[in-house]
Specification:
This protein has 241 residues and is of the alpha/beta class. It is built from eight helices and ten strands. The strands form two sheets. It has a six-stranded mixed beta sheet. 39% of the residues are buried.
Length: 241
Amino acid sequence: MDVEQEKMTNNIFLQASDIFKSYKIEKKAINVLKGINLQVLKNEWIAILGASGSGKTTLLNVLGTLEVPDAGSFSCGGNDMLALSRREKAFFRSEKIGFVFQAYHMFPELTVIENVNLPNKLNSKIKIPRNRAEELLERVGLKDRIYHRPTELSGGEQQRAAIARALINAPDLILADEPTGNLDTETGKGILNIFKELHGSGLKITIVMITHDLNVADYAERKIYLKDGKIEEYQSREYNN
């Protein structure tokens, strides 16, 4: 192994090998993931593309430990994720992973700042500075909206709040499922620019984003194409300035 190969091997953050996943629908097995092999480096931003039904969301759920594969191995940050108990996985998610979904999943009865602080409230073992939520909301441009209810925010504002929530516990990994899917083009660009700023800010956050939109995927450093549950193509590129 040469120096460059060794450096890359030591820099691997996510590694999935021979991942298979199927579901039973009316006693019929539906094979969704069919032997996925994937490596993601520390502080890398990748986009996973594919048509509806290609397995994108299922793969993201496996990477986020929300679903258990039928076969294969998966490590994150040097941890064998399939060897962890359900409770250990839950703690790992709350400590190390931030989720951003297409639907914003804001609790309407809570204020914006209460929504952002919710992961911290659910895991009292993680000590977060008192003003971190306010700082994050200011960072995503919602300084003047922290005491509003989600119903008083636009879709773009709710997604910015969701990004702040995903960052509250200073995660190593952001998993984003169609983060601009419910937004118009210009608002979506604003969300992607927040991701771009975060990725280049020195926070050392790894981002795995799924999308069906090539224009959205162009913001990532690397694109991966899924087709029928298999990786069809890798494409690397220079970062889009």
